[in-house]
Amino acid sequence: MDKQRDFVLRTIEERGVKFVRLWFTDVIGTLKSVAIAPAEVEGAFSEGLGFDGSAIEGLTRSYESDLLAHPDPTTFQTLPWRGEIDPTARMFCDITTPDGQPAVADPRHVLKRSLAKAADAGFTFYTHPEIEFYLLKSSSFGADGPEPVDSAGYFDNVPGGTAHDFRRRSVRMLEDLGISVEFSHHEGGPGQNEIDLRYADALATADNIMTFRTVIKEVAIEQGVYATFMPKPLSGKPGSGMHTHMSLFEGDLNAFYEEGAQYQLSKVGRHFIAGLLAHAHEISAVTNQFVNSYKRLWGGDEAPSFVCWGHNNRSALVRVPLYKPSKGQSSRVEYRALDSAANPYLSFALMLAAGLKGIEEEYELPPEAEDNVWSLSDSERRALGYAPVPASLDHALEYMQESELVAETLGEQVFNYVLLNKRQEWQDYRSQVTQFELKSNLEML
């Protein structure tokens, strides 16, 4: 770590960095940033930077407000959108109390705790997110809702279109930040795009997702458009998901791979999927944390609305992607409920915990879904045991508040804060009188 710190201090000097931003997230997953001068970095490494945690969503209770942000030197990167004028860098931080204990409500620490539990069982957890978002002409909207930048569709090539330039600029910026991109393309909705990050260990991926959102927003501002990760910004159009591919490794070996097994999926992989299915309802209020998230889950367009798994079945909640016989190491499972607005630290912690529980308890994997689950009737789905995912945030919170797994994984303070914050969101939403109600009822009643 000392070598890494020395590298950071040397790089700051060599590149003439003028500001260093220290980044961390609140419990809901909003990025927080404080800029310090280069001369303060060494002190931040050795002592941390003090701040009032009670002013940050969910981080502390008011009577224990003092916290310290400790920059992680392995996350040091210069920010390409700042250019040569006042070069700026960033580092993610671990949050502690003044006596050096990890802050229990630091989302990064919640994930680290889950990863340590996996390590105790001999596993390293890797994730690979496919992040969807919409590009709009502006953040304001009229009676018809937000206006997308184009009317293109899935994989469309739009000559001279905003999205081409946008993706090219975004990918270049991400690569400059050391974030490897696997694919980028236009998605199914008008103005909707997808950029897939290459797989990495889950902590690095969560940091990368937070950086990704910032890059996308910065490029949008630069190009005079607006980017949103809202799960369902347009009625009748696809929502924005963050399908996440996951695998566990034991050393250099993929624990999900077994040659000759069905879909080359090992017992460990099958138990992991069974854990995801068994606990899907309980983790939903975190993987899909907004009222709007459930408009996506129940809006069709390949969003997973029922708890089941399938091989290459895009209507299932968990998918085992098509495998290449020569690439056993790439065996993985894909969780399709997660949306682009989720807190990646808490979501990854819970998905890992659910999968590990399935492995520990040797949960039995139910039969796979071979049909398009959306096309089945309710009675057919019931007969096959495909339970619906929560219908609303309120419904998801009912499952979460009874969950030992979620309480244990998040810790008491984060668990209680998420419940409190999200119940308030539901209450605020429920008290609204919507345009739908006015259109449907005002004249008729």
Provide the structure class. Answer: alpha+beta
Taking the sheet with the most strands, its summary is: 10 strands, mixed
- The general outline is globular
Give the quaternary arrangement of the chains: single chain
- List the total number of helices: 14
Radius of gyration: 22 Å
Uncertain runs: none
Report the β-strand fraction as a percent range: 15-25%
Keywords: ATP-binding, Ligase, Magnesium, Metal-binding, Nucleotide-binding
Domain GS beta-grasp: 15-100
GO molecular function, one term: ligase activity
Protein name: Type I glutamate--ammonia ligase
Lay out the secondary structure.
Elements: H1 2-14, E1 19-25, E2 31-36, H2 41-47, E3 49-52, E4 66-71, E5 77-78, E6 88-96, H3 107-120, E7 124-136, H4 162-176, E8 181-186, E9 192-197, E10 200-201, H5 202-222, E11 226-228, E12 242-250, E13 253-254, H6 267-278, H7 280-287, H8 293-297, E14 306-307, E15 309-311, E16 318-320, E17 333-335, H9 344-360, H10 378-384, E18 387-388, H11 393-401, H12 404-410, H13 412-430, H14 435-441
Parallel strand pairs: 1-6, 15-16
Antiparallel strand pairs: 1-2, 3-4, 4-6, 5-6, 7-9, 7-10, 7-11, 7-12, 8-9, 12-13, 12-17, 14-18, 16-17
Helix pairs in contact: 3-9, 4-5, 6-9, 7-9, 7-11, 9-12, 11-13, 12-13
Give a summary of the structure in a few sentences.
The protein is of the alpha+beta class. 36% of the residues lie in helices and 20% in strands.
Any key phrases for this structure?
14 helices; 10-stranded mixed beta sheet; globular; 6-stranded mixed beta sheet; alpha+beta; 18 strands; 445 residues
